[in-house]
Specification:
This protein is an alpha/beta fold. It folds into three domains: 1-49 and 91-111, no CATH class; 123-184, no CATH class; 188-361, 3-Layer(aba) Sandwich (Rossmann fold), CATH 3.40.50. It has ten helices and twelve strands.
Length: 365
């Protein structure tokens, strides 16, 4: 490895360490959602040890405050006077990390266990395995042993092979090449349903917390499944499915009926994701303010009867709102006290996102 490559790798390791150290703060940054394209996330970092830049003290004031008459021609580069500076300046360095790299840092920091997929596996992909032999192919895939074997067989059959002076010279017809055979490649599938309360009691800060947490959960799960599908649901008094972009931008208000989201989630699972093939993870995010005790009971019944028999884990994360009682957290805690597949967490502010994700994903799902 060249010296410059080692320096670059060292620099990236320093950057990763800085991001990891400040991960709790970065997880609350809304800018993480600002860049599209190839899913590159741009994280601004304060200037770190390398390189170190030094700037001189400004003896003449700010821009346009030096000596000279109005209308005088500006000096050319290098015309300045005065000694080299001794001061230092703090600058910003923009470092690009892929979503996959961020998810890896998240897993390292939280010491998350690797997910072991449960249930069945899909067989929708094919992988080329070079287990066959062909008479034609690129020279890079020529099979040396089989080529010389064919040459030896030909020379023995023609009587031109002399065991006292063995000399095997392949001709074109002797050449053999490794050839691919397409074989079914099973892989685990995951269906993730993100449900977000967008009722009037969920303010902009609560929604921002939810979106940040969903981003990181989604990044982590995508690392573990080749076959990954995410569905996005929002609800107030009624639930509806939206696309990813709408989920991260929507601003709505209204009453709250949590059961509507669970009913829609159950229907989507029944229609599209048989549990013998898919690993299914519903995550619900709300401030816990629901329509009333009747809807609390309906929601619990749907989770117990329609969701839990089909899903790997049900996750509920509750933000804090200035409105409402936030009673639903306790409702779920009491109803599913004996089911460790129902995982509950509170997210009072952005600093709590890290701990909430550790709770939701810390069992390896």
């Amino acid at each position: 490895m060249m010296a410059i490559d080692r320096d670059l790798q060292r620099f990236r390791d320093v950057v990763r360490g800085r991001v990891r150290r400040d991960l709790r703060r970065w997880m609350g940054q809304s800018e993480l959602f600002g860049k599209k394209g190839d899913e590159i996330v741009s994280i601004p970092l304060p200037q770190i040890d390398l390189p170190r830049l030094r700037y001189g003290k400004n003896q003449k004031g700010g821009v346009g405050q030096g000596e000279g008459e109005a209308g005088a021609e500006a000096g050319q580069p290098g015309d300045g006077q005065g000694p080299a500076g001794e001061g230092t300046a703090e600058h910003m360095l923009e470092v690009e990390l892929t979503v996959d790299e961020l998810a890896a840092i998240l897993g390292e920091e939280l010491e998350l266990p690797r997910i072991e997929p449960k249930g069945g596996a899909g067989v929708d992909s094919q992988k080329a395995r070079y287990t066959s032999i062909s008479r034609r192919g690129p020279e890079s895939l020529r099979h040396g042993k089989r080529t010389f074997k064919e040459a030896l067989k030909r020379q023995i059959a023609s009587g031109s092979y002399d065991p006292r002076r063995p000399s095997i010279i392949p001709v074109r017809d002797d050449r053999r090449y490794r050839a691919p055979v397409l074989e079914p490649e099973p892989y685990a599938r995951a269906a993730v349903l993100y449900m977000m309360d967008v009722s009037g009691s969920m303010g902009s800060e609560q929604k921002a917390i939810v979106r940040n947490e969903v981003f990181w959960i989604d990044a982590w799960l995508r690392r573990h499944y080749e076959g990954f599908e995410a569905r996005f649901l929002i609800h107030d008094a009624e639930a509806r499915e939206v696309d990813r972009e709408t989920f991260f931008r929507v601003r709505e208000a209204g009453g709250t009926a949590i059961s509507s989201a669970y009913e829609l989630a159950a229907k989507i699972i029944d229609d599209d994701y048989p549990s013998d093939v898919w690993n299914i993870y519903p995550f619900h995010f709300s401030d816990g303010d629901n329509l009333g005790q009747k809807d609390n009971e309906t929601s619990v019944r749907i989770v117990r009867e329609k969701l839990m028999p089909r899903v790997n884990q049900f996750g509920y994360a509750q933000t804090e709102s200035a409105y409402g009682s936030g009673r639903f957290f306790q409702v779920l805690a009491e109803a599913f006290a004996d089911d460790d597949r129902v995982v509950l967490t509170r997210v009072p502010n952005r600093d709590a996102i890290l701990d909430s994700i550790r709770t939701l994903l810390g069992r390896g799902l």
